[in-house]
Design brief:
Oligomer: heterotrimer
Largest sheet of chain B: 4 strands, parallel
Strand content of chain B: 5-15%
Mean pLDDT of chain B: 88
Number of helices of chain B: 6
Distance between the termini of chain B: 67 Å
Low-confidence stretches of chain B: none
Radius of gyration of chain C: 23 Å
Order of helices and strands of chain C: EEEHHHHHHHHHHHHHEEEHHHH
Helix content of chain C: 40-55%
Distance between the termini of chain C: 38 Å
Number of helices of chain C: 17
Strand order of the largest sheet of chain B: 3-4-5-6
Chains: A alpha/beta, B alpha/beta, C mainly alpha
Low-confidence stretches of chain C: none
């Protein structure tokens, strides 16, 4: 039977009930939100039972307006056999950003989680080697969070008025 | 008995080919000898046999590969042999964006080069940070090493890279032999923290 | 420790240790800046630790500041060997967000440009694999034909390498006759060149011995590592975004996907070679389809999108609506729908994905690039473990790692 978004939604609600919220289908891709403790169980279920064996993308987003749920980790999974994609979101507060790691299940999650840690400070529990990957090791802040600026603040030679910062 | 010449026997009209004949430097000519000042000879020899070190990091590196290719041949200018060891090279061509993580490495490579050494910053990113005015990009390699010639462009056309190279050749040709030991040069290096 | 059984160390002597070698960010064999700290047991690699980030330019942070049409030059610099594909991918993402359908002629012209970029990328990769095994001639010979491709780009958009080709909704100008002439010249001359290049390597004994059986990876491990593109197809999985989720009228084209078996360096070389032949076929089909448009249809080079596509300059100076649209687009006051979209295209290295979250404002709220090089470089330690040092170098270049895409 061909896998459609309705069938996936039905199977997930059968197994996990109403812990999964915010169902949506923007531009045809099934999207849902799960509580952060459930992310690994959900992905293992999708891996084993529904053949979502390809992790296309793992990234993080910072929503400073969502109180107590500022950092979101977004997983894009792909079922190569049936050619179905889905998007899973997990929210975590910025004060305690612990999320279970997916690197045990998908080896491609290893560096992508390091990148999410480097940019946003999401702490992936159980990751074998969580340290900065793209920025310099001595950096002490997480640059892609919304409160930090783009430019290098230590420059003295660029005139801010002229460059419209 | 020698064979008669069969090929290449037509008289060539070299004057009208537009070939640029380089004049010899000022000096005293005689039967079988030519005397000139030492730095002119050294300058002439050095400028036509520069060994560049292509420090290619990003897109400008691909334009450099096109410059080394047969269409825009850089080896016409004597730099047939590109080396990757700084100990053996004269010219450090930095091509591409240098991130702050990479800055100390550019400095290390520069320190390993022996005098006389020149630096060519190819591209907007190496000259001034380019379009990347961000927290992670070094805004120009002249923050870490002294630069001789800047080639603007994003990426610069191979003709522009060759133009920059020819300006380096001018610098090499006209450099005085005492420059590297003088006080001004020492002050320049000290301003970069290089002894 | 050492598994050489003919070396018998006397009792009580120092135990043999491994050597640490830094294959540093500046190295002639690493094409781009990435570092590998290798632990060697003699000549065999025991462990390797890759470090990236030496060219991190914070694209994703820059993208949160720029309006949508100013992000195209950023996407150029991702995989700079095939920048038109990145540009088209970004335009397709924006068009998906806005719900725009481009006319067929635009799609076919886009296909021509994207396949030329794919040929250009695979040419660099295959010839650099040749250079790393010692054959410099192929590289020099083939660079001349990349110059032809650059000339075609110059005719269309004015620039050679970082093209910034096209706009959201189509192209900025119609392809001139010179562009089509150059394209015909390329289609005529290039097959002969590719055949000669193949003759240099495909059945060359030395090349086969250097690359066959080296750097292999199984299909399951490749999928688990998130491989896409020629590296995954060399391992045996026929996943190609152009076929699975067709975009820009690829479904009208007739082509096959070359697939390898063992995923080693030779298979990767063959897959890229096969893809170049398929790209030539696709370009010919698309070109014939473009020539079938006659009259007014042959002048179509963009979708009818006054809200997001800059109007013609003559119209801006004469008509009121065009002036208003011009002002609104440049100042960034057009309404962009809020929402999130994920769009992927088949780049030179695999699935290049764009995850765009828009909040209705002038610039994206979050733009994430799913960069294939970053994802499959993680597998390098596993691929190269147990092989010789020189094999590791050849594997590195046959994986086609582009530093700009990796760090981004």
């Amino acid at each position: 039977m061909e896998m459609t978004n309705e069938i996936i939604q039905q199977k997930l609600t059968e197994k996990f009930g109403d812990q999964i919220t915010e169902w949506a289908e923007p531009y045809g891709m099934l999207t849902f939100t799960a509580p952060k403790d459930l992310n690994l169980k959900l992905m293992t279920f999708l891996f084993d039972e529904m053949n979502f064996r390809f992790l296309t993308d793992l990234t993080a987003v910072h929503y400073p307006d969502r109180a107590n749920e500022e950092l979101a980790v977004v997983y894009h999974l792909h079922n190569l056999v049936e050619n179905v994609r889905l998007r899973m979101k997990v929210f975590t507060p910025v004060a305690q950003p612990d999320v279970y790691t997916a690197s045990g299940l998908f080896s491609s999650a290893n560096w992508q989680e390091r990148e999410a840690f480097d940019f946003y400070g999401v702490n992936f529990v159980g990751h074998p080697d969580l340290r900065r990957i793209l920025n310099v090791d001595e950096m002490d802040y997480f640059p892609l969070r919304k409160e930090f600026p783009l430019e290098d603040q230590t420059r003295i030679d660029k005139d801010d008025d002229m460059f419209g910062r | 008995m020698s064979r008669p010449v069969r090929f290449n026997i037509k008289e060539k009209d070299v004057q009208n080919w537009g070939i640029n004949m380089v004049d010899s430097p000022d000096g005293i000519t005689g039967e079988g000898f030519f005397a000139t000042s030492f730095d002119k000879v050294v300058g002439l020899a050095r400028k036509n046999s520069i060994w560049p070190l292509p420090f290619a990091t990003s897109c400008c590196g691909i334009e450099f590969m096109a410059t080394m290719g047969s269409h825009y041949d850089l080896s016409r200018f004597g730099s047939e042999r590109v080396g990757f060891s700084p100990r053996q090279c004269d010219l450090l061509m930095v091509m591409g964006t240098i991130a702050k993580k990479m800055g100390p490495i550019v400095k290390q490579v520069y320190l390993q080069m022996a005098e006389p050494r020149w630096v060519l910053a190819v591209g907007a990113c190496a000259s001034s940070g380019g379009i990347f005015d961000t927290y992670s990009v070094l805004q120009g390699i002249d923050q870490v090493v002294p630069v001789d010639v800047y080639v603007p462009g994003c990426p610069p056309r191979p003709e522009a890279i060759i133009d920059g190279f020819m300006k380096i050749q001018d610098l090499v040709h006209n450099e005085s032999l005492r420059r590297r030991n003088g006080d001004k040069y020492k002050l320049l290096l000290e301003s970069y923290g290089i002894q | 420790m050492s598994d050489h059984s003919n070396i018998k160390l006397p009792e009580g002597s120092i135990e043999k240790q491994t050597t640490t070698l830094n294959l540093g960010p500046t190295h002639p064999a690493t094409h781009g800046v990435f570092q590998n700290i290798l632990e060697l047991d003699g000549e065999r690699i025991v462990k390797t630790e890759p470090t990236v980030g030496y060219i991190h330019r914070a694209f994703e942070k820059i993208a949160e500041r720029r309006p949508y049409y100013q992000i195209t030059p950023l996407t150029d610099r991702l995989n700079y060997c095939s920048s038109p594909i990145n540009n088209m991918g970004w335009h397709l993402t924006c068009e998906k967000l806005l719900g725009v359908k481009t006319p067929k002629r635009v799609d076919y012209l886009r296909i021509i440009i994207m396949e030329l970029a794919r040929i250009s990328d695979h040419l660099i990769c295959n010839s650099i694999v040749g250079v790393d095994t010692g054959a410099y001639t192929g590289f020099l010979y083939v660079m001349q034909y990349r110059e032809l491709i650059y000339e075609i780009y110059e005719e269309v958009c004015g620039s050679r390498l970082t093209t910034n080709i096209g706009r959201i909704g189509g192209f900025e100008r119609n392809f001139s006759n010179t562009a089509f002439e150059k394209l015909e010249k390329f289609l005529k001359e290039y097959p002969g060149v590719l055949r000669e290049f193949e003759n240099l390597f495909t059945r060359n004994r030395i090349f086969i011995e250097r690359t066959q059986g080296v750097g292999g990876i199984s299909a399951e491990r490749a999928m688990n590592y998130g491989f896409t593109g020629p590296n995954l197809r060399a391992a045996g999985v026929d996943y190609d975004v152009r076929v699975h989720s067709p975009y820009s009228s690829y479904e009208d084209m007739d082509f096959v996907i070359p697939v390898g078996t063992t995923g080693d360096n030779y298979d990767r070389y063959q897959v890229r070679n096969g893809e170049m032949w398929e790209s030539l076929k696709i370009i010919e089909q698309a070109y014939r389809k473009v020539q079938e448009f006659k009259g007014a249809e042959a002048e179509v080079y963009h979708a009818n999108l006054p809200e997001y596509y800059l109007p013609e300059k003559q119209a801006v100076y004469t008509s009121m609506e065009a002036l208003i649209y011009h002002f609104k687009i440049i100042m960034g006051e057009t309404d962009i729908p809020a929402g999130e979209v994920y769009m992927s295209v088949e780049g030179g290295n695999g699935e290049l994905g764009f995850y765009l979250i828009s909040d209705g404002g002038r610039s994206p709220y979050r733009l994430h690039f799913r960069r294939p090089c970053f994802i499959y470089y993680q597998a390098y330690p596993e691929i190269v473990k147990g092989s010789m040092l020189s094999d590791a170098i050849v594997t590195l270049s046959s994986l086609n790692l582009i530093a700009g895409e990796m760090d981004g």
